Amino acid sequence: MFPSLAHRPWHVFCRVSLQRRSSLSQWSYRFLRGWQIGGTHSLWLSLPDSRVASLGLTSVQYYSTSGDSKDGPPKSKSTVSPSADRVATGAAKVPTNLSDKALQGLTKAEAIQVKVRAVLKKREYGAKYTKNNFITAVRAMNEFCLKPSDLEQLRKIRRRSPHDDTEAFTVFLRSDVEAKALDVWGSNEALDRERNLRKEVEREYQENIFRNQQLLKEYKDFWGNTKPRSGKRATFLQGPGKVVMVAICINGLNFFFKLLAWVYTGSASMFSEAIHSLADTCNQALLALGISQSVRNPDAIHPYGFSNMRYIASLISGVGIFMMGAGLSWYHGIMGLLHPEPIESLLWAYCILAGSLVSEGATLLVAINEIKKSAHKHGVSFYEYVMQSRDPSTNVVLLEDAAAVLGVIIASGCMGLTSLTGNPYYDSLGSLGVGTLLGTVSAFLIYTNTEALLGRSIQPEQVQKLTEFLENDPAVRAIHDVKATDMGLSKVRFKAEVDFDGRVVTRSYLEKQDIDQILNDIQQVKTPEELENFMLKHGENIIDTLGAEVDRLEKELKQRNPEVRHVDLEIL
């Protein structure tokens, strides 16, 4: 094994230091140990590499076996290092392929110092390990068909609440609940039968829920509805709801008078204006429906609420303007070009257009004032507020009324040219112009509301503000993968990956503990099992402290930024 040793006398001292650790499964070392007995070397001992997991080989010492050497090896096997015997237990054999010269150089004794690392036995939890899982009382009663009285005898554990309105709530160990369910129902088969029975009852209830609602409505109609007025009515007395209701009333009247003028004059431009007012009235009625639905409270099916209903209504409104307004105006203008007809007196048409200009202008001013107030409230300019479609309902009214005012001017100009020249083509061109204007408005509405429904990010300045607040917290090292989405109605959903400082979190935990008691517990640790129990106890508490830090950051982020309604901080 060491050829150079074969040519050296026995009084030479050799030491080989091995400074690295290695698994014996990767390094197959064989140690030759022997001594001179009657002039021959008689023992070969190999270390099997499957008996230990890891060895720290610090030194291998070789000594002369001559009697006059002070460092001579022991004369018998009984003096071999006990630690080496415990680890390097192997079968002794005499090799037959070694020469006498080589054996003379290998007559030596070795002292091996071995360090074995203590490793806890790995736990096999399995794919469905639920022994330490917690379950709430509601889930225990629903999933395991238990009663509140059945849960009173089980172990109760107070845990940190995930809800903002409560600090803590009671949970149970899932293993205890499962054992209690088997005790109550007798077997898993009986429990499954009860679950299926309850599912059938739930299905029947869902089928009859519509009939129950009808009966409740009839009961209210008969006895009178004593329930307080809904907050939905208040939404139409201020803000975007007020703008929409004013627009519905004015556009409805405009449609009626424009329709009479078209019947009297037969003007293509007047027909386009009548269709324009009808489209505006229908679309704004749709906006009113969207506003009433957007203020509904979140439910189990829609946990983030119904604020996007305004964008959906505005999107449908844009499509309606394109189909009804632009489509019919283009159609009537093209037919007027292909089949021109003489136009009767336009005096009444001018009077009605003048009245429409005043009424549409009044509605436009109401929408402009409302957008100015909202833009000032959010700290943005009028143009940015409109382009970002922060309030889709008011935007639709603004754009529709602006298009209506421009459409009245275009229709009046084309009808005036027709009156002066007697050429009906100018009137048809006016119809095409109004249709093009409506098509442009509808395209803008479709684009902006589609962007909002896809989940548009808030402004970079706002994202930077939220990120800096989190990064300035001592418990946070870094923020990654930030996503801040505008949910509509000035509601923001914020999500980020947070790299927490474990030292700060641990200090936060230790500040609430009795340090002397912890030191005493550490001194009592003598075995790996006691160490494991100590670490498991404090490790779980530190994880709870980390969760409390997440809750604190989410709460402070909402308090400092009221527009942030939903915060999802994920631990990195």
UniProtKB/TrEMBL annotation:
Q: Where in the cell is it found?
A: Endoplasmic reticulum; Mitochondrion membrane; Nucleus
Spell out the protein name for this chain.
Proton-coupled zinc antiporter SLC30A9, mitochondrial
**Primary localization class, coarse:** endoplasmic reticulum
Give the family, as the similarity comment puts it.
Belongs to the cation diffusion facilitator (CDF) transporter (TC 2.A.4) family. SLC30A subfamily.
Show where the Cation efflux protein transmembrane domain sits: 244-454
Q: Does the keyword Transmembrane helix apply?
A: yes
What Gene Ontology terms describe where this protein resides (cellular component)? endoplasmic reticulum; mitochondrial membrane; nucleus
Give the record's GO biological process terms.
intracellular zinc ion homeostasis; zinc ion transport
Residues crossing the lipid bilayer are: 243-264, 311-334, 346-368, 397-422, 428-447
Q: Which Pfam families match?
A: Cation_efflux
The UniProt annotation puts the region (Disordered) at 64-90
User: NCBIfam families in the record, alphabetically?
Assistant: CDF
Q: Which GO terms describe its molecular function?
A: antiporter activity; monoatomic cation transmembrane transporter activity
Q: InterPro entries in the record, alphabetically?
A: Cation_efflux, Cation_efflux_TM, Cation_efflux_TMD_sf, DNA-bd_dom_put_sf, SLC30A9, XPA_sf
Reactions catalysed: Zn(2+)(in) + 2 H(+)(out) = Zn(2+)(out) + 2 H(+)(in)
Ubl conjugation as UniProt keyword = no
The way it spans or sits in the membrane comes to: Multi-pass membrane protein
UniProt keyword terms in alphabetical order: Antiport, Endoplasmic reticulum, Ion transport, Membrane, Mitochondrion, Nucleus, Transcription, Transcription regulation, Transmembrane, Transmembrane helix, Transport, Zinc, Zinc transport
